[in-house]
Automatic annotation (TrEMBL):
Family: Belongs to the metallo-dependent hydrolases superfamily. DHOase family. Class II DHOase subfamily.
Segments crossing the lipid bilayer: none
Cofactor(s) this protein cannot do without: Zn(2+)
Residue positions, PTM N6-carboxylysine: K99
Protein name: Dihydroorotase
């Protein structure tokens, strides 16, 4: 039986939601990941240290008994986040980053930043403290095509941001284009990126050919094959700037299978298996451990996890759906499909 043993991976971009949804999904991540960077886009968003600490307690409460999963918290940046909030966050010891959502760019981003220049003093405090800024990198201008929003964001927002704050630790979250892979590759070592399994595995045809498949709809949206190839090349290159961030983003089945469906792919139940499939496809399974388990902690200044997980080559079928609380169901990406790898411990 062919197996892969890896230092236990971490998820550097995860949505866990709250209340019954949190209870329903947290176990999937905790079964695979040692730690995860928890996204703050709740309603209302997690904008203060106090709210982040309370949210962390709710996550710990929701964990299966005996789980050692560690939630690494983030703050949601707004136009008015004061520099002092960064000092409080740093002092908490459990808030590891600040998240930038351009206002209106994605799910629960209405309180996001309208103009990043409003945040310069706070970002200067972050650069000084070594607190990373995690960026949902898409412009929201109505005249910019949805497929171009990431590439335009790099030129209009990210490059000027780094000119103003050259030492800022910056993570381009869930990158989806060759332009983003190129930008991060060329940038200094304080700039890194997360990549999702779905952007490494699928292009936009998967979502749109032969019928519209709402479970493949996420933001940034799946792109052309050329971009997927560029991402896969960067992820499997051994370059330490690229690491695992699932962007597993749960929404109830009814909210996805709708005339106006929510953005977000639920990948947590088989995250590491999906990444293994992508790396195997690129003939680069030997680089999976660095991407999944080593590069992320190194960027965040943490040690790698001390334990490991094992995947076995074993065909198994992903369930059609899981319970999502309040009588609802949630459909994972690749529901009902046969996967080639299975985590066995
Ligand atoms: N990725 C998504 O499509 N959705 C995320 C938000 C995000 O990460 O942009 C969500 O919270 O649902
Ligand atoms: Zn995002
Ligand atoms: Zn996300």
């Amino acid at each position: 039986m062919e197996t892969i043993t890896l230092t236990r991976p971490d998820d550097w971009h995860l949505h866990l939601r709250d209340d019954n949804a949190l209870n329903a999904v947290v176990g999937h991540s905790a079964a695979q990941m040692g730690r995860a960077i928890i996204m703050p886009n709740l309603t209302p968003p997690v904008t203060t240290t106090e709210q982040a600490l309370a949210y962390r307690e709710r996550i710990l409460q929701a964990l299966p008994d005996g789980s050692a999963f560690e939630p690494l918290m983030t703050l949601y940046l707004t136009d008015t986040t004061p520099p002092e909030e960064i000092e409080r966050a740093l002092a908490s010891g459990v808030i590891k980053a600040v998240k930038l959502y351009p206002a209106g760019a994605t799910t629960n981003s209405d309180s996001g930043v309208t103009d990043l220049r409003h945040c310069d003093a706070t970002i200067a405090a972050m650069a000084k403290a070594g607190m990373p800024l995690l960026v949902h990198g898409e412009v929201t201008d109505s005249d910019i095509d949805i497929f171009d929003r990431e590439a335009v964001f790099i030129e209009r927002v990210l490059k000027p941001l780094l000119e103003r704050h050259p030492t800022l630790k910056l993570v381009c979250e869930h990158i989806t284009t060759e332009q983003a892979a190129e930008f991060v590759t060329q940038a200094p070592d304080n700039v890194a990126a997360t990549m999702t399994a779905h952007h490494l595995l699928f292009n936009r045809n998967q979502m749109l050919v032969g019928g519209i498949r709402p479970h493949y709809y996420c933001l940034p949206i799946l792109k052309r094959e050329r971009h997927r190839q560029a991402l896969l090349k960067a992820a499997t290159s051994g370059n330490a700037k690229f690491f695992l961030g699932t962007d597993s983003a749960p929404h109830a089945q009814g909210a996805k299978e709708s005339s106006c469906g929510c953005a977000g792919a639920y990948t947590a139940p088989a995250a590491i298996e999906l990444y293994a499939t992508a790396f195997e496809q690129a003939g680069a399974l030997e680089h999976l451990e660095a991407f999944a388990s080593l590069n992320g902690p190194r960027f965040y200044g943490l040690s790698a996890n001390a334990d490991s997980i094992t995947l076995e080559r074993q065909a198994w079928q992903l369930p059609e759906s899981y319970p999502y609380g309040d009588g609802q169901r949630i459909v994972p990406l690749q529901a009902g499909e046969t996967l080639a790898w299975k985590q066995v411990n």
